[in-house]
């Protein structure tokens, strides 16, 4: 049965985890302690009300897992992405059943890999540790070889989500949008409709706006991106392939956001009713703050 999926988290590939963590701290975000993966990568998370940003890098090249036809390799995809630079490498969707999603996506004709179940130790706010467990189903598309998508089923969310990690000096509370740049945005309509299970899509010659649970995915032309994100570095919108270029988070008080940025000497620009931080500080994508409060996606 078709249903609408929301944004679970953004995978931001970084070359130096400590430096990336400091950059996000300077923007007023709290971050979790280091979490290690069994395949040679590690992360720090920016937990929000119901989704999060994952800062992830390669920490053990000897443990990287090669890609295969049947099994997607998170670490191989990340390593390949980082050879071109930092940025958002993957979009992760929320789900209650990753294995059912795999079946559904296959029926829709998407390129789906076998679901993967794994666990890791997580450090809790009081310094103790506990095990978190996930099942992931990955999807790729030949027209977007540099990026990937997957759904993430959390098996013990009460261990993962902690209010102490969700309190941020900038007041940010949720990811509400991601923006991709594509040479011809309308060509991506079928893929994203199948991926997100969304029938609510706005289309214009230079953009697709796909509505999902509690958020939107925007696919825009290079020209539209340059107009919407004047803080983007020169040439960022002129790439040949489809790529993630920006993410939007909601914060109740933009003056509070601006104070955090000024106090930590983070370059930022007011663009209409938003504040934008350019790629160099946000690890390869434009991070946009807009006013508002987080709304929990409907179950």
Short descriptors:
single chain; 299 residues; alpha+beta; 2,3-Dihydroxybiphenyl 1,2-Dioxygenase, domain 1; 2 domains; 8 helices; 21% helix; globular
Give the SSE order as H and E letters.
EHEEEHEHEEEEHEHEEEHEHEEHE
What is the general shape?
globular
| CATH class label of the largest domain | Alpha Beta
Q: Please give the alpha-carbon distance between the first and last residues.
A: 14 Å
Structure in words:
The protein has 299 residues and is α+β, with helices and mostly antiparallel strands. It is globular and about 50 Å long. 21% of the residues lie in helices and 36% in strands. The protein folds into 2 domains: 7-166, 2,3-Dihydroxybiphenyl 1,2-Dioxygenase, domain 1, CATH 3.10.180; 172-291, Roll (2,3-Dihydroxybiphenyl 1,2-Dioxygenase, domain 1), CATH 3.10.180.10. The model has no long low-confidence stretch (mean pLDDT 92). The two termini are 14 Å apart.
């Amino acid at each position: 049965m078709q249903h609408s999926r929301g944004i679970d988290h953004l995978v931001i590939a970084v070359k130096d985890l400590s430096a990336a963590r400091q950059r996000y701290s300077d923007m007023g975000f709290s971050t979790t302690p280091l979490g290690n993966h069994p395949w040679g990568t590690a992360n720090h998370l920016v937990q929000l009300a119901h989704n999060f940003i994952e800062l992830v890098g390669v920490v053990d090249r000897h443990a990287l897992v090669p890609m295969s036809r049947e099994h997607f390799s998170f670490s191989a995809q990340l390593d390949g992405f980082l050879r071109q630079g930092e940025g958002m490498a993957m979009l992760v969707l929320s789900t209650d059943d990753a294995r059912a999603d795999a079946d559904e996506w296959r029926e829709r004709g998407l390129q789906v890999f076998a679901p993967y179940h794994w666990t890791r130790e997580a450090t809790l706010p009081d310094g103790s540790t506990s095990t978190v467990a996930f099942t992931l189903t990955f999807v790729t598309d030949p027209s977007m070889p540099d990026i990937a998508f997957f759904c993430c089923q959390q098996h013990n969310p009460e261990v993962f989500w902690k209010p102490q990690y969700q309190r941020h000096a900038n007041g940010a509370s949720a990811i509400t949008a991601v923006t991709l740049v594509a040479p011809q945005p309308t060509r991506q309509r079928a893929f994203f409709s199948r991926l997100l299970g969304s029938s609510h899509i706005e289309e214009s010659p230079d953009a697709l706006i796909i509505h999902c649970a509690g958020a939107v995915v925007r696919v825009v032309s290079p020209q539209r991106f340059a107009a919407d994100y004047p803080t983007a570095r020169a040439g960022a919108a002129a790439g040949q392939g489809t790529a993630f270029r920006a993410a939007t988070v909601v914060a109740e008080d933009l003056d509070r956001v601006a104070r955090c940025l000024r106090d930590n000497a983070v370059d930022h620009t007011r663009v209409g009713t938003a504040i934008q931080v350019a790629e160099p500080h946000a690890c390869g994508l434009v991070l946009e703050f807009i006013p508002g409060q987080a709304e929990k996606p409907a179950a």
